[in-house]
Design goal:
TIM Barrel; 3-stranded parallel β-sheet; 10% strand
């Protein structure tokens, strides 16, 4: 999964998208100007690939909402604890608005349990209470599925109990497995049992379990996530350009280790040279299971944008979600 530079595709972007190792594109705020522009951009991306390609974005709400103008302003996940009856609808609305403009999925919901110390998670977490987080994230995912969008839970096995930001450094979580399991893994377990389609591991080291960050660890991805928890969906690496990934080596090594650990798709963002290196160095594997997992992430939209804006559920929910966002901001 790669990124692009601007609000339209350059020739360089088109060549990267057409590379046989490119399977997806993620868009950021710099790629968004208006609903009409991003619809056209997403069509350009699909045309450049000349085959199946996934288009993703981070549209959690709060401080992580890449598409804003022309979209309902979403509150941070912690706001739904105050109005849990809106959670399913919020998942539906977030997904429906993106699907109508040609996106396949958002990297959501955040399943991390906030411990009150994390610089990067905080109110991106649905709750500091594990059971409440399980209930709210379950409802949010069900709303996404109702709209036709697959969900990706992040950041396995939990990023909320470390203070440091893995974009900037490599956090260490010193807790033992049983503590992590009973506090942080339970939302992942709950949603896996309900059919969760995708998971993103954390760039965090849990030294009591393994010396490697979770996203590069066969212990976490294969032994615990796949075998113990029974997850059979897609594993997306977190961005290997983040500083939390640097401890395992250069970009080629990061990509190789992530795949060997069990990641189905590797994200390389905000570093053009790194993306080029990974695309050129990664061997093309004919893996039917991985291919089927990824194809399952393709969107199943129910509405065009015009239809959505006339949909009774959207007309009822959008003002309520906007009001919740304003109330939480104040």
């Amino acid at each position: 999964m790669i990124d692009i530079t601007g609000i339209t595709l350059s020739q360089y972007d088109k060549e990267k998208i057409a590379h046989p190792n490119t399977g997806a594109v993620i868009l950021f705020a710099r790629n968004y100007e208006s609903p009409e522009q991003v619809w056209e951009l997403n069509q350009q991306i699909k045309a450049a690939r000349k085959g199946e390609i996934l288009i993703a974005v981070d549209q959690e709400g709060g401080r992580v909402q890449r598409c804003q103008t022309g979209f309902t302003r979403l509150p941070p996940a912690a706001a739904y604890a105050d109005q849990p009856e809106l959670t399913d609808g919020a998942g539906w609305l977030m997904a429906a608005e993106l699907l109508a403009l040609g996106f396949d999925f958002s990297f959501a919901p955040v399943l991390d349990i906030d411990a009150g110390i994390s610089e990067i998670i905080g109110n991106r977490s649905f709750s500091q209470d594990t059971q409440q987080a399980c209930d709210l994230t379950s409802a949010f995912r069900k709303g996404m599925r109702r709209a036709g969008m697959a969900a990706i839970g992040k950041h396995f096995p939990g990023h909320g109990a470390v203070a440091l930001d893995s974009h900037l450094t490599l956090p260490m979580d010193e807790r033992d497995f049983e503590t992590i399991y009973q506090k942080d893994i339970l939302p992942f377990k709950r949603l896996i049992q309900e059919g969760l389609e995708g998971i993103m591991p954390a760039h965090v080291v849990y030294p009591a379990i393994d010396e490697l960050p979770a996203g590069f660890s066969p212990v976490w991805i294969n032994d615990i996530l796949r075998q113990r928890l029974g997850f059979n969906g897609v594993v997306f690496s977190d961005d290997i350009s983040m500083e939390g990934a640097a401890s395992v080596g250069g970009f080629d090594e990061r990509s190789k280790l992530a795949q060997q650990a069990g990641c189905d798709m590797v994200l390389v963002c905000n570093n053009e040279k790194a993306a080029e290196d990974v695309l050129e160095s990664t061997p093309i594997e004919n893996n039917r299971i991985r291919e089927q997992r990824l194809l399952h992430m393709l969107a199943k939209p129910n509405h065009t944008q015009v239809e959505l804006k006339n949909n009774p559920e959207w007309l009822e929910l959008s003002p309520k979600i906007t009001q919740l966002s304003k109330a939480y901001a104040n």
